[in-house]
């Protein structure tokens, strides 16, 4: 069977395509099926996408969805289905935690809850042999009952390496994952929800062996360019024995620069120095808020500002570029809280930072909190998750205030860049 995965771009074309289809495509190919990628870039019209789909002649269309992609994907797939009579399956975060919303739309026939490798293969086999799709674990068919879940795939080393042609990655810049799952309790993040989804049937947090990760990187290097590795794990530095051994074997066998995501609670000076020696030249930390009250009571990630400052200093001293991420417009946040975030951002003077207006992703604890408190407007599902404007009706912050604070973050980032450029020029 020929399966076509459509990557739905929303704002930019330089981002790596969704990793999920890359895993599923490799799994389908291992079992004798075809898998193709069509990138629906923002400059392509619905008609152009439809014609591209027709030219590939798929038997099944798959789309991996975040909430940010959902609105465009819904419209785009509706147009495609007007001309192409092919079943469509949706997977990913949005499909897992807002499945009814997707199945309510005529363009979609199936939703995959959780991991998709085995469920998609079962669907392909059922469609190939005209068998019923009603009892496939993880697969919710339109008009059917919510499915049971199969245990998480174990061990991860048994999965084939990601089908790199499905990622549309820049030459030599390689996105990688070494694990699935994140053990932390952050109330705003969908990653934690997978642990809750699978809680009754298996442990969702799993990690690949060092040998498996390095073998994939070596295979990529033999097949083409391997110039930089971006590890996309939510928190790379969870288990220090694994990280320390990784640093040793990576520097011996791979050696190209790489970047990671980490939390300040999960690093030590020693770990940072080992990472730097192994080739890590950039770390992104989720600071999120400068208000301890917001981090602790709203976001469920208690960590003191002093610890954040200490880790940023250690990271710089290790010779690693440091990036921070901040959020604003959270439920129950006040102007005073955002002022504290701005003050911390200025004090930390990260090499770069991102700033995002909070959006309540379906399935997260803060989504349910916003729903219970009446913060979600009636049309919230139709509002874009662009992280530049708030979609909430908050009693403690107005839309105008959030917009003004967003502009202040923009100005701060520009000023820090200008100050750094000026200092560099004077040196």
Which secondary structure elements does this structure contain, and how are they paired or packed?
Elements: E1 2-8, H1 19-30, E2 34-40, H2 46-56, E3 60-64, H3 67-83, E4 88-91, H4 93-97, H5 99-103, E5 110-112, H6 117-129, E6 139-141, E7 173-176, E8 179-180, H7 190-197, E9 206-207, H8 210-223, E10 228-231, H9 240-253, E11 258-262, H10 269-278, E12 280-288, H11 292-298, H12 305-317, E13 321-328, H13 335-348, E14 352-357, H14 365-373, H15 399-426
Parallel strand pairs: 1-2, 1-3, 3-4, 4-5, 7-10, 10-11, 11-12, 12-13, 13-14
Antiparallel strand pairs: 5-6, 8-9
Helix pairs in contact: 1-6, 2-3, 9-10, 13-15
Word description of this protein:
The chain has 15 helices and 14 strands. It is globular, with a radius of gyration of 22 Å. It has helices at 19-30, 46-56, 67-83, 93-97, 99-103, 117-129, 190-197, 210-223, 240-253, 269-278, 292-298, 305-317, 335-348, 365-373, 399-426, and strands spanning 2-8, 34-40, 60-64, 88-91, 110-112, 139-141, 173-176, 179-180, 206-207, 228-231, 258-262, 280-288, 321-328, 352-357. The strands form three sheets. It has a six-stranded mixed sheet with strand order 2-1-3-4-5-6, with helices on both faces. The protein has a six-stranded parallel sheet with strand order 7-10-11-12-13-14. Strands 8-9 form a two-stranded antiparallel ribbon. By secondary structure, it is of the alpha/beta class. It has two domains: 2-141, Rossmann fold; 170-426, Aldolase class I (TIM Barrel, Alpha-Beta Barrel), CATH 3.20.20.
